[in-house]
Amino acid sequence: MDEHYLPENVEEEAQKYWQENQCFEVSEDPKKEKFYCLSMFPYPSGKLHMGHVRNYTIGDALSRFQRMQGKNVLQPMGWDAFGMPAENAAIANQVPPAQWTYDNIDYMRAQLKRLGFAYDWQRELATCKPEYYRWEQWLFTRLYEKGLVYKKTAPVNWCPKDLTVLANEQVVDGCCWRCDTPVERKEIPQWFMKITDYAEELLADLDQLPNWPERVLTMQRNWIGRSEGVEIVFTVNDEPLRVYTTRPDTLYGATYVAIAAQHPLAMRAAESSTELASFVADCKVAAVSESAIETAEKLGVDTGLKARHPLTGELLPVWAANFVLMSYGEGAVMSVPAHDQRDYEFARKYSLPIKQVIRPADDSDIAIDECAYVDQGILQDSGEFTDRTSAEAFAGIADKLEQMGCGQRRTNYRLRDWGISRQRYWGTPIPIINCRDCGAVPVPDADLPVVLPEDVLVDGSGSPIKKMPGFYETTCPKCGAAAERETDTFDTFMESSWYYARFACVDNNEAMLDERVNYWLPVDQYIGGIEHAILHLLYARFYHKLMRDAGLVNCDEPFTNLLTQGMVLKDGSKMSKSRGNTVDPQALIDKYGADTARLFILFAAPPEQSLEWSDDAVAGAYRFLKRIWGLGVILENNWCIGHKGVKDQIPKTPYDWSGINAEQQSRRAKIYSLLQKANYDFSRNQFNTVISAGMQILNTIHQSAPGPKLFDNVSNTKIVKEEIIDRSIQHEGASILLRLLSPIVPHITHRLWKELKYGENILDADWPEVDESALVQDTVELIVQVNGKLRSKIKVAADAAPDEIEQQALADAKVANHVANKTVRKIILVPGRLVNIVV
RNA sequence: GCGAAUGUGGCGGAACUGGUAGACGCGCUGGAUUUAGGUUCCAGUGGGGUAACCCGUGGGAGUUCGACUCUCCCCAUUCGCACCA
């Protein structure tokens, strides 16, 4: 064994061992409890970044821990290989997206292997391969038959100069990121999936996920946004104008109606109003993202139309407004400025009337001159509903509107259907053929997959397959006439919505999924960035239910436990190329090795919190590994190599603790209490404190001084006895330490386990159990407080009676000082912890 | 704008169900080893005070014998907002 820790050598050897012995290749084994641990697969952007290293280190520590608990652990890895960056790189470097992607995958795979992650590489998949996406196309055609997909027009960001559709991230301050031209909103036909059909179930089943972070559940609930309200029909020139509100109790306070600029009423009115026409035109020049719409200045123009209030018969002005979008809801809202802050600000700006119809139930003062009163309360100036509570009025007004036929109670969701069409090249072709006579016809199963041509040139002027007759010219599967393929591709969220299931049966070329998924699913532990809290996780849950209803899987939810890891920061902000504050993990691995990288990243912060990068802390992690290695060298010298001609001095198990002295006993107790703490911390994925416990165990082992004195005093049996116990504590402690840390730093522990002759393969070792007998203490230390302030500490027998403890506490000199001349009013005794004397 | 979270020494963080604030590590200071630098080892390290003690978990109020932990308000930072993945 080398005297110095040489990570490169240690790590290469361990990785070779794992590969040769196929340690992480698994198959279904009904006799064993399964554990499916999945880290979110990466987009192959070029090389691993720190966020990947963090994500995968957490997943690997968890997987290895579960494996040592005796479970059949599946930990796969793959590539989320379709996406925009490949097209951007293609434009920049004149390299086809496919080649760029495959090169990146090769490089990043090598990096993952160098980090020693316990993946079953036999199951590797890349979503850009036809053998993967063909099943996505297949499922899409099934959903088409079921009526779960449909086509409608929807807005996209359009750059009028580059003549291309822009992603939201390609719109910077309302302008194109390449040419700075103001972006327009363009309505084009696109495919949608009816996720709203599953809104109720997606909401309700969140209750089946108690082991998801509460904040993710809350964000998903808010995103789905179920509300109970009333659809109210106003009339404009005897034509119905529908609006939805969750506050029908404020109906008498409505003073105008706001409609989208694209609303048919506004478009018609614009024909006779130049001001309105130019406003409608202006509204086209705007990005489509919700944050862009909500943060833009609220603008409007009076259409001149009047809407008749269904209850009062009043005629309210109808305004076209830029914050109302045609594609969401009815494209119209009733405005109650007195009781909605946004309506209030708009009314103030355009001098529209503000009519208060709700007052606080407790008659507290409100200043309607300053801001809207948005809470519930008691109605006023509301006809027959005056003096009712908001809740009573909600029911009363809804009933009345329903009786009159100008309203309907409705459950509404904020969630919108999922637009899955992208006007891009590097994605899964949408398996639809457009026929002049038959309309949209799904590609028959026998013709799947629709393969994306990979040998193309991307020049930035739109998707190359839109210019390839060889791709899009075909015949209609129904009537045989000449027809054209759909040239849009799927949203890449489609691929990442079902990969977790495909890992169970990657080799199946006959079906999307097979029986094996029901052995492995659901995923027991899913790990990924908090930035995926809503979209990816909601789409994957939705897809899972689609697959369940297609008979492909038999559980309701895909991910039982979810861990959302925090971000990696440097100097307080997210590492990013644009900020220029990235740290390349490869440099870290090259300098210190995989174990140091893993140790640092797990020690620096608990997984859910953001992690601040620190070069010094990395050096500290490396130092700790060197200390462990140093311990190994010392122990090996003492036990294995022999000393002064005495060979094979490895302490015998089971250990003989008879004659153990108090100091040794307390050292053993310390090691076991640290193990207990570490086991608890492993169970809650708090690896930083597991490592802290490991550091303390190492320190404690070092206190059991290794001794050449055994051999210098061979004839002195008394010293020998003490010495043997010291050695046994070291032997026991080191075996605990190595196993405890092996999920975190697998290479160095693999090597030392073998070198110190504990066994052949630490992966197959039993997880260390707490020896309760080592923990028994006969005295405990209690803290003594006076009025809740710490004043002293006392040692009492573990089984001391409450009276005894109180007497001892009061007798303490420091305590007596603070209690003197005062009456003891109360004594609070928390067993095993504290005494609080209240004076 | 809307939704969600976070805030503890010089730094990363610890504190289990309301019960010793600052574990563990980094950094720093002093010492030992070393020709020197580095490495390694030992000791110290929240602020104030000679001390007894006092102050201290973003700010302000509150509940409690006792609050980093619970409640309310405020401030700052971060994430998401449907075409980045």
What this model shows, in words?
Strand 1, helix 2 and strand 2 (72-74) form a beta-alpha-beta unit. Residues 706-717 have low confidence and may be disordered. The strands form 11 sheets. Strands 2-1-26-27 form a 4-stranded parallel sheet, with helices on one face. 38% of the residues lie in helices and 20% in strands. The protein has 839 residues and is of the alpha+beta class. It contains 27 helices and 34 strands. It is globular and about 105 Å long. Helix 23 (717-741) packs antiparallel against helix 24. It binds one RNA strand of 85 nucleotides through helix 7, helix 10, strand 19, strand 20 and helix 16.
Nutshell version of this structure?
The chain is of the alpha+beta class and 839 residues long. Helix 21 (687-703) packs antiparallel against helix 23 (717-741).
